[in-house]
Predict the 3D structure of the following.
Amino acid sequence: MLAPNEILSQIENDITALRGAINHEQIQADLDNINKKLADENLWNDADSARKLLQKKSSLEKQLTDLNSLTTDFQNLNELYQMAPTDPDVISAIESLAERANAAKFITLFNGPNDKNDAFLFIQAGAGGTEAMDWAQMLARMYSRWVERHGFSATVIDEHPGDVAGLKSITLKIEGDKAYGWLKSEIGVHRLVRISPFNANGKRQTSFASVDVWPDIDDSIEIEINEKDLRIDTYRSSGAGGQHVNKTDSAVRITHIPTNTVVTCQNERSQFQNKDMAMKILRSRLYELELKKREAAEAESKAAQKKIEWGSQIRNYVLYPYQLVKDVRTNIEKTDSNAVLDGDLDDFMLGYLQQYT
C-alpha cells in the first residue's frame, strides 16, 4: 500500500496528465462561441439545436470544473498533509482524492482521431433465430440506458423488427461528448446464455448478436462519392409507424457499388430526409472503411469482421445457471448482470481503452 506522500505524488501526476489532455484555451473559445449562439433568440425556435448546444456547453464546463476542483483540492490537501501527516481524516481525504483523480484521467485515453465525435451504433442479430433477435433488442435497450446515464441522446435511424419478437437489426445515432471514443470498445460479437422465454421446456439457450460502431465524421473531411457508384432504392417502411410511414415509399436504401456498402434509413418524415441521413451514414461508413484499411492489424477492426457465432465473442452475458458478465479481452467481470443490462458498461469500456490504446 502506498504511503500518503506517494499517493499525493500520484495525484499530481494524474492531474498533470489530465491538464495535458485538455486544451483549456480551445474549450474556453468553444464556450464563448456557444454562449453567443445561445444569446440568439432565433435559436430557441429549434428546440433540438438548442438542446444540443446546452448539452455541449454542460460537457465543456464540466471538464474545466473537474480540473479546477481537482487542482484546488490537491493543493489544499498537500498543505494539510505537511501540517498533519498522521491525521486519519487527512489521509482518508487524500485516498478519496486519488480515486477522483484516477477516474478523471481516463479522459486521456480518448486520443484517437475521431474519439470526440458522435457515433452510429449498429446491432445485428446473429445465430439463434428468435432468441437472437430478442437479444439484439436487449442490447439496444442496454446501450440506450448507457446513453441516458451519460446524458447523451440516441436517435433510431433504421430498424428491422424480428418476425416473432425482437430486432433483426437497428441503427442508432448516439450524440454526446466522446461518444465514438466510448463506444468503439463495443465492436464485436456479444453472447447471451439464459433460460429461453421462447422455449416451453425452459431449456438453456445461447444467442449471439454483433455490434459495430462508426464515427459521425465532420463534414469538412473529404470523402468523395460519385453518383454513378450509387444505387438508390425506395420502399415502404417495415417498422411501426403512422399512415405516412406505412403507405408511402419514403424509406431509402443506398448501395455503394464499389465497396458493396449498403445503408438504409426509414425513420425520418420524408424520402428526402431519409436519403440525406442515409448519405451521412454512408460517408461515415466509407471513412471508417478507409481507416480499417490503414489499421487492419488493430483488434477492433478484426472484431468487427468476425462471424456472429460461437467462439468469436468479445463479451459473455451469462444469466443461467449463474449471473456473470465477462469481457474476454480484458477479463473484467461483473456478477450483477441486471446492472450491466441496465447500462452499467463504463468499467468494460475503460478497461478496454486502458489495455488497447
